[in-house]
Amino acid sequence: MGRKKVLEGGTRDKIIDQAMHLFFENGYEATSIRMILDTVNGEIGMFYHYFKSKDELFQVVVERFFKDYSLKFTGMTKICGSREQFIDILFDYVEEGNSNFNKISDKLHWTISYAFAARTIESLQPAIAQMLKGWEYLSQLSPDLLANQLLYAISGTIHTPSYREINTEDKKIIIRDLIDKILDN
Questions:
Q1: What would the pLDDT profile of 43-73 be if each residue is shown by its tens digit?
Q2: CA distance linking residue 46 with residue 36, whole number of Å
Q3: Residue 59 · residue 76 · CB < 8 Å
């Protein structure tokens, strides 16, 4: 007899939700399958019904995290009518994301940190490109290229140690200037 098809939702989603929480709280290496199953009152056989390995579960967790992250950001950008609104929304979103990430970053291997940064840019790029299509700007580049330039420039800026030491209002000014330079050159 063949294996039953694994449906979305229910116990599988509980495992994913708890795994996300534990991976982010403890780091990948310090989170065991047993720890995850204990939080959902599950047995090891149940885990292997839904996932082939801890690595596969981690991949599903990351996919869900970035899907949710992208959907939330896309919803926020749809209400942006101006650069100022966008800068405010982006700044608040990035600051919140950085604050959350800084809580777990010391528990992640550096390769995972870099992968998260790259995936963050990848997940936000379509929403920013779409938003740019409705804006006027001087650059002759396509919205897709401009969105990438904005995101990589902002990422490089906010991950600089000296940026973290600047007060909030000055951080906004730096991000605003950066966006203006990219869009109007």
A1: 999 999 999 999 999 999 989 988 988 898 8
A2: 12
A3: no
